């Protein structure tokens, strides 16, 4: 759920100087992976309700010598990584081989599959176009009900494995818990889950949700104008003279972002952040509203009846796989208190493996999971060791 934060970020600003952007801002994810020296595959996945999703696979590390006539990842440990709202598979490669989780996992011997949920540049529909409102009538509910099951089935079919490892960030975790709640049979296809910045309980952002969705009624006002979500072009067209991203100490926009996600100037990457703004994906209003309903009610609820509709909790007792929750000490979006609330619920049903801070850095915020200057050292390299430990404990072979 890089969600409510991204909503305000893009609505109010989203400014960068296009002439100064590095080439990585414009490269496709497969080209980014190739340029980093890794093998890459593109896989097309069809959902039961007609969406077409492209997954990006890194079947081996760059230091692995493979015979051309051999399957590239036969018998390997298979992991699916799922992005948050406004993100894509690119979030897990954009920092490069020494920092990005996908590359570090591939070099450690994992068969890495990067998800792209419906709504990203790497998605389409068999009948609908992205210019039609109906295309955008979804939230993480549909991600959990349709997208994740289709991708998991595809990965298992291609690899011949019985189970996958699941790792999600923000909305990637919300989609996971939605899937397990609504389609509990998929517990049998997942070995364990690592959830970073889990977006399940969000009472800490209730004031923002109330202002945007109740008091100002922003999403419905935009729909009346024929707008169904926050489009990336809004980033390029919004208040270009408001932000001075290269001077974060005095930049109004940077300070505003920090007020939402948590202040971390030391790990704020001045080179990567403008690239992230350029690569941000379409965010449908229904996703923002669904997160808003969770924040307003304090319940991990379905979207039945809309924001003001009845509260119908997802059934988290259906979760049967071990879950490790990883939080940022200074994450103001998916706040520690809300992660601990989820931890208690998972502990009560016997599936909580561990709840732990992302690292020892006290300012680690919601975006630091992906874009911190030292994300490789602070989070990803230790995280791979944790995944190794869990794999050995819950051997997926």
Automatic annotation (TrEMBL):
Which InterPro entries does the entry link to? AB_hydrolase_fold, AB_hydrolase_lipase, LACT/PDAT_acylTrfase, Lipase_euk
Going by the UniProt record, its keywords in alphabetical order are: Glycoprotein, Hydrolase, Lipid degradation, Lipid metabolism, Signal
From which residue to which does the signal peptide run? 1-19
Q: Which GO terms describe its biological process?
A: lipid catabolic process
A GO term, aspect molecular function: O-acyltransferase activity
On whether Transferase is a keyword of this UniProt record, the answer is no
Gene3D superfamilies, alphabetically? Answer: alpha/beta hydrolase
Q: Where is the Partial AB-hydrolase lipase domain?
A: 30-95
Per the Swiss-Prot or TrEMBL record, the active site comprises 170, 331, 366
Top-level taxon in the UniProt lineage: Eukaryota
UniProt lists the family membership as follows: Belongs to the AB hydrolase superfamily. Lipase family.
The record's PANTHER family line, in alphabetical order, gives: LYSOSOMAL ACID LIPASE-RELATED
Q: What is this protein called?
A: Lipase
């Amino acid at each position: 759920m890089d969600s409510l934060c991204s909503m305000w970020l893009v609505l109010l600003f989203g400014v960068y100087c296009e002439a100064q952007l590095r080439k990585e801002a414009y490269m496709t994810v497969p080209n980014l992976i190739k340029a980093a020296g890794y093998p890459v595959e593109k896989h097309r996945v069809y959902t039961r309700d007609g969406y077409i999703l492209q997954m990006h696979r890194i079947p081996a590390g760059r230091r692995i010598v493979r015979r051309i006539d051999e399957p590239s990842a036969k018998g390997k440990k298979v992991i699916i990584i799922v992005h948050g709202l406004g993100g894509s598979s690119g979030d897990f490669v954009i920092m490069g081989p020494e920092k990005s989780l996908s590359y570090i996992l591939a070099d450690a011997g994992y068969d890495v599959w990067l998800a792209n949920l419906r709504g990203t540049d790497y998605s389409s529909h068999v009948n609908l176009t992205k210019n039609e409102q109906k295309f955008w009538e979804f939230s993480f509910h549909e991600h959990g009900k349709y997208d994740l099951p289709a991708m998991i089935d595809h990965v298992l079919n291609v690899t011949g494995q019985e189970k996958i490892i699941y790792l999600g960030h923000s909305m990637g975790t919300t989609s996971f818990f939605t899937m397990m709640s609504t389609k509990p049979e998929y517990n049998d296809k997942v070995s364990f889950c690592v959830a970073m910045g889990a977006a399940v309980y969000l009472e800490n952002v209730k004031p923002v949700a109330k202002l945007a969705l109740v008091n100002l009624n922003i999403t419905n006002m935009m729909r009346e104008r024929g707008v169904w979500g926050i489009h990336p072009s809004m980033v390029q067209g919004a208040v270009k003279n408001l932000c001075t991203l290269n001077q974060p100490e005095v930049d109004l926009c940077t300070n505003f972002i920090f007020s939402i996600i948590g202040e971390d100037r030391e790990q704020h990457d001045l080179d990567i952040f403008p690239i992230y703004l350029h690569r941000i994906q379409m965010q449908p209003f229904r996703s923002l509203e669904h997160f808003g309903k969770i924040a307003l009610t304090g319940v991990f609820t379905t979207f039945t009846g809309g924001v003001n509709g009845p509260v119908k909790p997802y059934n988290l007792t259906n979760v049967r796989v071990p879950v490790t929750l990883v939080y940022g000490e200074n994450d103001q979006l998916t706040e520690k208190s809300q992660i601990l609330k989820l931890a208690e619920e998972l502990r009560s049903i016997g599936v909580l493996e561990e709840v732990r801070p992302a690292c020892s850095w006290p300012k680690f915020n919601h975006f630091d999971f992906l874009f911190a200057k030292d994300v490789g050292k602070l989070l990803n390299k230790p995280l791979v060791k944790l995944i190794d430990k869990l794999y050995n404990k819950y051997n997926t072979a």
